[in-house]
Structure formats: structure tokens, C-alpha cells
From TrEMBL:
Pfam family of the protein (one): CBS
The organism of origin for this protein: Algibacter marinivivus
Protein name: CBS domain-containing protein
Span of domain CBS: 11-67, 86-139
Transmembrane segments: none
SUPFAM superfamilies reported for this sequence: CBS-domain pair
Length: 139
């Protein structure tokens, strides 16, 4: 296995994201439509946070475990903004960060996705699925 391969070779470049003015219902629609688990939250091309499907489910479950799920989710989603639910302390990598370094960061920090930035601008996202697909191709 080659050691110095940049993450740009495996990252997703077609970014699906949110803005701070989007709501959590839109986030759920995007998660389901595109079968993804992480959405960068941006202002223009600058990342300000990450929202995971787990973040969304955590607030839905916490508020609706004894209720009828669909109607309660809408109410719960309206109680919170994207900024209240997203992770704000975003750890990012550059497109030249090696795949090995990305794998190490994901393992050490117990993340499942990292935004990829160039000069502070979001250019991609790399997930554990991207890494697994890369490693599978190596065998």
C-alpha cells in the first residue's frame, strides 16, 4: 500500500451542505434523499459546523421517546436551530493530507467525517466510508 496518497484522491467533492438559515427538517430530508450521515454547515464556502445524522436523531429521540414519532419530530425540529445542534469545533484537513493521516485522525478523535479545506474554503468531505472503500480496493 502506498504511503503518501493525498485524501483528495478519495474525498467526496460534490458537497451537500446546509446553511445556518436552513432548518432541521431540511437536514433530515437531505440525509434521507442522499443516504448520507454528515452535512457541513457553511456560510458561503466557509465551514462553520458539521451536523451528523446522529446529532439529529439524538434530539428527536430525547424529545419523542414516549410520543408519536413523526408529529413530534416536526415540533422538536422547530424548537432547535441548525446552529444549536451542529458541532462547532470542526476538525478539518487539507486536500494534501495523506489518507493515512486522515484515518489516524478519524480513529483518534472518534469522528466519522472530516471536512476538507483549501485556504479556509470547503472543497470536499472525507468519511469512514470513503476510507473503507479505498482500503477494499487495495486488496
Amino acid at each position: 500500500m502506498r504511503q503518501r496518497i493525498p485524501v483528495s484522491t478519495i474525498m467526496t467533492k460534490n458537497i451537500i451542505g446546509l446553511t445556518r438559515s436552513d432548518d432541521l427538517e431540511r437536514a433530515e430530508i437531505l440525509f434521507n434523499r442522499y443516504k448520507i450521515k454528515h452535512l457541513p454547515v457553511v456560510t458561503g464556502e466557509v465551514i462553520i459546523g458539521m451536523l451528523s445524522y446522529t446529532d439529529l436523531m439524538r434530539i428527536s429521540f430525547a424529545e419523542s421517546r414516549d410520543e408519536v414519532s413523526n408529529s413530534v419530530e416536526s415540533v422538536v425540529y422547530n424548537m432547535f436551530s441548525i446552529e444549536q445542534v451542529m458541532s462547532k469545533d470542526v476538525v478539518a484537513v487539507t486536500s494534501e493530507t495523506t489518507i493515512k493521516e486522515v484515518a489516524q485522525t478519524l480513529a483518534d478523535r472518534e469522528f466519522h467525517a472530516l471536512p476538507v479545506l483549501e485556504n479556509g474554503i470547503l472543497v470536499g468531505i472525507v468519511t469512514t466510508t470513503d476510507l473503507l472503500n479505498y482500503f477494499i480496493k487495495q486488496f
